[in-house]
Amino acid sequence: MRRRRVILFLVLLSLPVALAACGGGQYRELLSRTEQMQSELAQIKASNANTMVMMEDIQNKLLLLEDQVETNRTLIGRASAAQPQLPVVRLRPEHNGGGTIRIEESDPNSEHDGPGSFTMEEVPAVKFQKLEEGMTVGRTEEVKPPRTTKRRFDSRPIELYKQAYEFVREHQHAEAIEAFEAFLDQYPDHDYADNAMYWMGEAYYDSQNYEKALSCFEKVIQLYPDGNKVPDAMLKRALCLFNQGHKEGAVGAIGQLVARYPTTRAAGIAKEKLKTMR
C-alpha cells in the first residue's frame, strides 16, 4: 500500500513536466492566462480596498457635517434677549459753499421720523484732482491674493472617537473613559471634543460615579458654550445633582435649561423629570 502511494506521488510530480513536453505551447498559454487572472484579481482587491477607504472618509465627513448642522440648530433654538436697535447715521452734503459734509444721527426710539435729529460733527469734503493727459499716478505694488492649499482630510480623530463611542454602546465604561481621554488629549480643539467630553460623562453616569460625571457635564457647558451637546449636558447636570441629594440645585438647573433652550428635546425631558423631583 505504501509502495502504491509513492508511485502515485511520483506520477503527479512528473505530470506538469509531461504536459510541458507533450504540449508546451498549450501549457505556457494556460500558465500565462493563470498569471493574468491572478494579476487582475490583485487589482480588484486593491481597488476594493481603496473604495472602502474612500467610503470611510465620506462617512467621517458626513459625521462632521451632521454635527455642525446640529450645532447650528441648537444655536438657532437658543433663547436670547432682544438685540438693541442701533441709531441710523446719514451723510448729507452741505450746499453752502463751505465744502463740508454733515454727519447726522437719528434716534430710532424717537418719535421724530425726519432725517437728522442732531449733528455729530462736520468734516471737510473730499476733493479729487482731475487727471490730465500725460499725468502719471504714483506706482503701487500689486497685492497678490494669498495662496490657498488644500488640506488633506484626517480621519484618525473620527476613527478614535467612533471606537470610544462603541465602548459606550457596549457598556464598557472603563474602556470608553480611557478612549475619550485619549481623544481629548490628542485633539482638544476638534469639532467632536464637546461630544467626547459629554459621552465620557455618560460613561461615568452609567457607572453611578455622579461626581466625575457632573464634572464632565460642567466642562461641556463651560468650555463649549456653543456646542450642540450643551442642552443634554445641562439635563444630565440636573440629574447628577438630584442623585447626589441636591434637590434644589437640580430644580434650578432644570429651570436654566428650559429658559435657555425651551424648544430642545432635552428641555422636554427635563420638564417631565421635574414632576418627579417635586
Describe the protein in words:
This protein is mostly helical. Among the domains are: 88-124, no CATH class; 154-220, Serine Threonine Protein Phosphatase 5, Tetratricopeptide repeat (Alpha Horseshoe); 229-278, Serine Threonine Protein Phosphatase 5, Tetratricopeptide repeat. The protein has nine helices and three strands. It has helices at residues 2-22, 24-77, 156-169, 173-186, 193-206, 210-223, 230-243, 247-260, 265-277; strands at residues 88-93, 100-106, 118-124. The chain has a three-stranded antiparallel beta sheet with strand order 1-2-3, with no helix packed on it. Helix 1 packs across helix 2, helix 3 packs parallel to helix 5 (193-206) and helix 5 (193-206) runs antiparallel to helix 6 (210-223). The longest helix has 54 residues, at 24-77. The radius of gyration is 37 Å and the shape is elongated. The termini are far apart. The model is unreliable at 81-86 and 110-123 (pLDDT under 50).
